[in-house]
Structures are given as structure tokens and as C-alpha cells.
Amino acid sequence: xxxxxALVEGLRKAELRHIPYVADAPLDHVxxxxxxxxxxxxxxxxxxxxxxxxxxxxxxxxxxxxxLMQSSGFGQ
Length: 76
Hints:
With 76 residues, this protein is of the alpha/beta class. The chain contains three helices and three strands; from the N terminus they run H-E-H-E-H-E.
């Protein structure tokens, strides 16, 4: 199993439905896999720090999520 498949499977198993992300070529294959699965709710962002607010809101609503970003986004 490729790492992208393992990632998608792990997100589903952990019930992390909300996936905010910044479009990025290296992560395109992961984003396409998530978008093809109706379980996930993807939300494109302009900047990674916007995803923190999205995920806090999801958490307060009793739902889980994960921020998808490349390592360059950690500086935000």
C-alpha cells in the first residue's frame, strides 16, 4: 500500500472528516484521493493558518479533522 493510501485510510479510521488544505503539487495525489471519497469534506484554503480556525470550529461542533499541508506551511 502506498503511503497516500495509508494516510487516507488512517484519516477515515480516525473519523477525521474535515480536511482543510492548501493546494500543492506534491500533495495532489492525496487531495485527489480524498476528494473522490464522499466521506471527506475538503476545504481549500489560501493559507495554512486559516485551517487552524476551521478545525477548531469542527472540534467545537464535535467533529474531527486534519490540516493537510506540506512542510513549508509549518512556518505559518
